């Protein structure tokens, strides 16, 4: 009965929102392959050279930004759901191409990272736009809570399945006993899931944004605060694709199974947490969810910085799993609220803010990645893994105080926009007074 009730609640939301959630749920099984196991694969095939490994996320984020820009132009001619599907499909083929390279050198890593970045650019640019267009501020807690709930369930199942397949190649001689052949099989599975997600997405009635200008260099002061917070978030993301894998290889013996167990433990807790966020929280609770996420990341970084052993690695990766999801679940709706308000205030295309937001993230990611590479090259990789992470964790925590200011300013802008609408339409004031009398 309880399940039927939850299905009924789900059915009360707009159709496009439901289609988007189901498509994202199917594709969610592909994301753990990208974020968790690609880093380990590269570490194993580059002889654990940290500087070389870090080239992958740098190429990835560069390809992502370029595609974000290109996508805005393509939306003038191609339906948004087709571009979204293209991103999902390219991600599977990019994994296939990467693991087909016999020897990973700098050019192969840059090419593989760039191609994956292209797929992620089409994926995130259109996913963000569709989420923005298909939801409102009132239902975004439900949307992102449920989306992360789906993603969490997949992150429980996928790492166990993938770890079992990879371990089976060694223990039972599957795929000729070749671990890289197991990765090839996993990539084929990712392509199949991307196809299913694309077919589901085709059932939505999505419309493209208006083909207007989307490049601006001057924005409202509120937007610069958002960009600064996104820059801080980007600094942490600059090496989050590969750092858990580096710590696993260095301190946990390189066993992919260990990484899968850590993901599973964190995900079991998160699945319940996210469904609670989806069903029980309101927009005013986002600041507390953000605080919990930032605190989890900082605590993990503190343990990793001061101890730097197997226990601290487990705590860090567990904290990172919780942090990334809670921050995404709370901060993204805040960004979308700001875009809703500023697009009305400045009379601009919402794509302009999405692209500029991605640019801010990219600058932060680039700085974070370069900081890590410089520290690993001129000091040591242990210093980078230990103390640079600690610095980033403490710096990111300042986003909490900035977000409080952003939410306060949003209320002020929303009130001013409401007054402007009422004064521009006098009959609306009469309707409002009559409604209050009733």
SSE topology sketch:
Elements: H1 2-11, H2 15-27, H3 31-45, H4 50-74, H5 80-100, H6 106-134, H7 140-171, H8 179-201, H9 221-237, H10 243-251, H11 256-280, H12 286-306, H13 310-345, H14 350-378, H15 381-397, H16 399-424, H17 426-437
Helix pairs in contact: 2-7, 2-8, 3-7, 3-10, 4-6, 4-14, 5-6, 5-8, 7-8, 7-11, 7-13, 9-14, 9-15, 9-16, 10-13, 11-13, 12-13, 12-15, 12-16, 13-16, 14-15, 16-17
Structural notes for this entry:
By secondary structure, the protein is an all-alpha fold. It contains 17 helices and no strands. It has a single domain, classed as MFS general substrate transporter like domains (Growth Hormone, Chain: A, Up-down Bundle). The mean pLDDT is 80.
Estimate the helix proportion, in percent.
over 70%
Tell me the total number of β-strands: 0
Average the pLDDT over all residues and give the rounded result.
Answer: 80
Per DSSP, the total helix count is: 17
Kindly report the name of the CATH homologous superfamily: MFS general substrate transporter like domains
Which radius of gyration do the C-alpha atoms yield?
22 Å
Major beta-sheet overview? none
Overall geometry: globular
Q: What is the CATH top level name?
A: Mainly Alpha
- Intertermini distance: 38 Å
Integer tally of domains = 1
- Beta content: under 5%
Q: Could you spell the SSE succession in H and E letters?
A: HHHHHHHHHHHHHHHHH
How does CATH name the architecture? Up-down Bundle
